[in-house]
Amino acid sequence: MIVPDFWAEARLQQPLGKRQATVRRWGWSDTSEADAQAMADARAAQAMADLQAGHTVARRERKQAYNGAQGLPIREEVLARHGSTVITRNAYGAHCLNTPDVVFADVDFATQAPARLTWLLFALLALAVVVTTRAYVGGWVWPMAVVLGGLVSAPAAQALYRLWMGYQGGHEALARKKLKAFVAEHPDWNLRLYRTPAGLRLLVTHTVAEPADGLVQAFFAQVQADPMYVRMCNNQHCFRARVSGKPWRMGIDSPMRPRPGVWPVRAEAMPQRTAWTQAYDRKAQAYAACRWLGDVGSGTVHPEVQPVVALHDELSQALQPNMPLA
Question: What is the predicted pLDDT for the residue at 162?
Answer without folding.
Answer: 64
